[in-house]
From TrEMBL:
Keywords: Cell shape, Cell wall biogenesis/degradation, Glycosyltransferase, Hydrolase, Peptidoglycan synthesis, Signal, Transferase
PANTHER family attached to this UniProt entry: L,D-TRANSPEPTIDASE, L,D-TRANSPEPTIDASE ERFK_SRFK-RELATED
Native source species: Halomonas campaniensis
Keyword Signal: yes
Disordered: annotated segments: 156-179
Record pathway: Cell wall biogenesis; peptidoglycan biosynthesis
List of catalytic residues: H204 (proton donor/acceptor), C220 (nucleophile)
Lineage, top ranks: Bacteria, Pseudomonadati, Pseudomonadota, Gammaproteobacteria, Oceanospirillales
Descriptive protein name: L,D-transpeptidase ErfK/SrfK
GO MF annotation terms: glycosyltransferase activity; peptidoglycan L,D-transpeptidase activity
Length: 343
């Protein structure tokens, strides 16, 4: 279990309280951007890029895992942004990147949107406001299903019944779990759970927050305890939940820069579509009626070596022209209604 210093815990508690107490002020536009609670961003008037990356200098006792949680970042996102820095024992004085800039998913801006490859949840909580939080999703063999559903029942301090497959695995190791785990520190659901219309799938907390931002669950969506507590208090039952898988996103910033963001493709989806074609389609959708000079060589690099960071795809005047790879006809390959697909 990760140990955090008192100042870290105090900062986290203050942010959670702020998120719970100031939602109405956000909805009314009464808050300045710099005062907004954890995970809250104004929807851009133009484009679809929110937040910004920044750097921090490691202090004595810091770990990247603690800094990730403090700054609303998941485990894998922090690891990819700082590939040469130890997650658990970074050297004091090391400068690290906090990846807090995001392209909004290519999906209707309503309710909750979960992007599986990104390991991130978006919540359009009120007009002009979007919230975003790191999550964990189902690991290979226990994939979180793609589809549209809704929130149903909210449960505080839930009991947990280990699924049959888990009981059988534990029994094979000689460690049979109890049929029911009561609320408490040993309960992997944490203290708050939001049930979904998909049977046996929930959005819930965790008693192992260090794993948030990884593929570690048996299909449910896990959040940091402070984040699920905030959503639990504010998400109405019946809220739409759109679970998508977009490993590559493209979009415009409000100052007219075309950005792309690429994430590792889910193992079970590898081979189901061609990543480069998928990326070209995403960029083409972002064009609209525009035809900007795209650096297709850079686009290919992003697809082949995803790191989750935003990168500009526009060629500069100083760049030598890169032969454009012709965008293939992709109509019908990725379109159509999103249907529930439990894998």
């Amino acid at each position: 279990m990760t140990l955090m210093n008192t100042s870290t815990l105090a900062r986290r508690g203050a942010r959670c309280a702020l998120a719970l107490g100031l939602s109405t002020l956000i909805a009314s536009g009464a808050l300045a951007e710099e005062e907004w609670p954890r995970g809250h961003f104004p929807l851009p008037e133009t484009g679809n890029v929110i937040g910004e990356n920044f750097t921090l200098t490691i202090q004595e006792g810091d770990t990247l895992v603690d800094l990730a949680r403090e700054h609303n970042v998941g485990y894998e996102a922090m690891r990819m942004a700082n590939p040469d820095v130890s997650l658990w024992a970074p050297f004091e004085g090391t400068e690290v990147v906090i990846p807090n800039q995001h392209i909004l998913p290519d999906a209707p801006r309503e309710g909750i949107v979960v992007n599986l490859s990104e390991l991130r949840l978006y919540y359009y909580s009120s007009p002009g406001v979007v919230e975003t939080y790191p999550i964990s999703v189902g690991r290979e063999g226990f994939s979180t299903p793609v589809g549209v559903t809704r929130t149903t029942v909210k449960v505080k301090d839930p009991a947990w019944s280990p699924p049959r497959s888990m009981r059988e695995e534990a029994a094979a190791r000689g460690e049979p779990p109890p049929a029911v785990v009561p609320p408490g520190p040993d309960n992997p659901l944490g203290r708050h759970a939001i049930l979904l219309g998909l049977p046996s799938y929930l959005i819930h907390g965790t008693n192992r927050p260090d794993g948030v931002g990884m593929r570690v669950s048996r299909g449910c969506i896990r959040m940091f305890p402070e984040d699920i507590e905030s959503l639990y208090e504010r998400v109405p039952s019946g809220t739409k939940v759109n679970i998508i898988d977009q490993p590559f996103k493209a979009g415009w910033s409000d100052d007219g820069v075309l950005y792309a963001q690429s994430f590792p493709q889910l193992e079970e989806n590898q081979g189901s579509f061609e990543p480069l074609l998928n990326a070209i389609e995403a960029v083409t959708r972002a064009f609209g009626d525009e035809q900007p000079p795209v650096d297709y060589a850079r686009l290919r690099e992003l697809v082949e070596a995803p790191d989750g960071l935003l990168v500009s795809l526009l060629q500069t005047a100083e760049q030598a022209p890169t032969p454009a790879e012709p965008a293939p006809e992709v109509d019908g390959l990725f379109g159509g209604e999103l249907e529930l697909s439990v894998r």
